[in-house]
Amino acid sequence: MWSREVGLKQVEQGSRHPVENNSSISTGEGPLRLDLKRPSFKHGLFREQSGKSPGTERAIIVRSEVSQPTPTNSRKSAGMGTLPATPGKREDGSPTQALGQENGTTTWQDKLPASEREALELEGWGRLSETQVNVMRDSKRRAKEASDAALPRLRKRFAKLGFDEDQLNVLRHIAEKAPIVIHFNPDRRMGWFTNRTVLKAFLSDTHYRNKYETGVSGAWNRGRDQKERKLFGGLYHQSWGPPGWERPKYGALKGLPVGNTFFSIFGSCHFELQNDVRKRCTFGYGVTSDDLKQTPGTCEHFAHVLARCGKDQIRWLVAVSEKRSFAHWSEPHLAIEAQIHGPIQLKKDIREVRFRAFKPRKTQKRLQQLAEANGFAISSC
Predict the structure, then answer these.
(1) Rg for the chain (alpha carbons), in Å?
(2) Residue ranges under compositional bias (Polar residues) (predicted)?
(3) pTM of the model
């Protein structure tokens, strides 16, 4: 079989036509070689599929059997499809979450004093990597400053809308109860050269994964990379940037436990996350890539995000927080983006999956299989 060495830069950018390079490349697991087989795009790399079709062969990246010493810092990133640094690999070759709570290995938190570990657990950050904890700490600090500054302005706005001080409890509703959802299209293909769908990928996986791991998203990699650099102060880009699994996943804050959100344009089905996941979420108004100057909020410090909502959205949120029955019928488009930091384990972090009733019965049956396999509820919306 024909093989050549390829440049690491082209590998990490997911290039479909890697540039040849005469030098050997070490990634800590041996050099990379180029083989001709039918590919599919997954986890930022080309991976082998069974079967061959004449005229459709393209280059994919596989690892040779040559072993080399693991470098002390093997993190490298070009902002797209990165190689996992610390994670191990499952039998199918896909990266694990590389956190002690997820795969039974030792984590950086195990080296901390017991008091610090307990503090992280109280914050809801016990399953985060060190980089993710730093992002959440910095985001919480900046969110508190922005929220405290916006609160007097928000009080005046509430007064103009006829609300009193007690109705600012809408902030408590958002902090404690408002559902967080992730929209997805179950029938979307995982790549150009495969019939494998997003739903099939869920059925064979243990986690919901971000676009750096799967190569599938409604946005393009470089735009998201720049967005995360600005929103989170470059903390996700220190030391050559993080492995793909460390980046946030994207969802939306939902006012009601039924119906859809503004972000349903990204998929007619959605996962509703468990309530404790909100402690490791940040929030922005609208699609945050449209306004990178805003400061992300947290569930505890949200006044500056709420202050950007329209008067109809504020009225509706107040009605929801007071459990008024008419709120069901007057839902405006609530466009609040959620960035979820840390793992989303299907068996642990998903409360329910909802789907549109018009979905094909085949899709509905597979969604039912997914719900039964992972122990969460399923319903139509």
Answers:
(1) 22
(2) 65-76, 94-109
(3) 0.71
